[in-house]
Amino acid sequence: MLSIEVTRECPLRCPGCYAYGENHLGGEVTLRELSDKRGDELVRGVLALVDRHKPLHVTLVGGEPMVRHRELSRILPELGKRGVYSMVVTSGIIPIPMEWMALPKFRAAISIDGLPEHHDVRRHPATYERILTNLKDRQVNVHWTITAQMLQREDYLEEYARFWNARPEVCHIWVSIYTPQRGEQSAERLSAEQRQRVAQELPRLSSLYPKLLAPKGYAQALLHPPSSPENCTFSRLSKNYSADLKTHVEPCVFGGDPDCSQCGCSASAAAHWVTEIKLAGPLKARHVLGGSMRVGSAMARMQRVAIPAWRQREQVAPAEEQELVQILTD
Q1: Can you give the pTM of this predicted structure?
Q2: CA distance 272 to 258
């Protein structure tokens, strides 16, 4: 899986946004300081990364990726031709081109953090009113990050799920819990008791509102995240680039020093949940995945492909020479 921050630009100033944190890219440079790409250079650069890494799925983020909608209108069809699944994660501040709805293997995801009382303050000018206008006749997923402020009212979570489940534009609702950096003390960060409450409430809401993808196994994965990047399936299977298309975001999409003990990433939880599924007897999906990754890593070493130390505990080559660990299939 490949994630690319296609631009450093964003008209929003959301509290708790990890992308613009001082340590997001390791502390040497920040996202706003990078020299990002545009036009033909961006199109060529993104497709070159895809052709090099050959991922199954590409997520295009920012910044606000829709600032580069013209370039994305050239990139996304090419990804479909390559058989690559793609997703653009946006605030919904700019209308998604209607022609994207017909693209193969594509989905747009809108980040909507809470009900208007919180979202419209946190993510202005990408307000509910603007999002609903821009979503007309589109089909999207909704990504919801739960923060501590949303747990002050008993029926808050259900009101959110009920509203977006009823919208005809929405295909699925993915849920994350706010993931802090290590040592962070912020208004968004959930307490252990609040995380427990969310994990108990999500399966009930998922049974009532079918677009909400949060069954019991997924909720438990949110409550018991992997202890470190090397134990995180999603982190091990993904590579993340920032807006200059060279700088890596490590150890995962959050960058910096995320507190894995409080990780609430929907992708990490989903991967962790899936790998615990039993296939036959004591055999679980993670056993098959682990074996495949070991074979892929061995082949990468034979081809002198460098793999990050936290993934393989080996010496790391320069960032620009690192490759994805490929999962082998028949």
Answers
A1: 0.85
A2: 17
pLDDT number for residue 294: 63
Provide the token pair at 2.
């490949």
143-176 burial, b at 16+ Cβ within 10 Å, e below that, comes to bbbbbbbbbeeeebbeebbebbbeeebbebbbbb
* Cα–Cα distance, 89 to 141 (Å, whole number): 9
Tokens of 294: 């070991």
Lowest-confidence region among 119-123, 231-235, 255-259:
231-235
Give the model's pLDDT for residue 316: 38
Q: How far is CA 219 from the centre of its chain?
A: 17
Mean pLDDT within 45-69? 97
| pLDDT number for residue 233 | 87
3-state secondary structure 252-319: CCCCCCECHHHCCCHHHHHHHHHHCCEEECCEEHHHHHHHHHHHHHHHHHHCCCECCHHHHCCCCCCH
Where exactly are the structural domains of the chain? 2-276, 279-330
In sequence order, what are the beta bridge partners of 144? 175
Residue 22 is classified by DSSP as T
Site of tokens 């909507």: 112
Q: Tell me the CATH architecture of domain 2-276.
A: Alpha-Beta Barrel (3.20)
Per-residue pLDDT of 180-200, as tens digits, reads 999 999 999 999 999 999 999
Strands 57-61 and 85-90, sheet pairing: parallel
Strand, helix or coil for residue 178 = coil
Contact 239, 324 (CB under 8 A): yes
**Rounded Cα–Cα distance for residues 174 and 115 (Å):** 15
Q: Is the Cβ–Cβ distance between 62 and 19 less than 8 Å?
A: yes
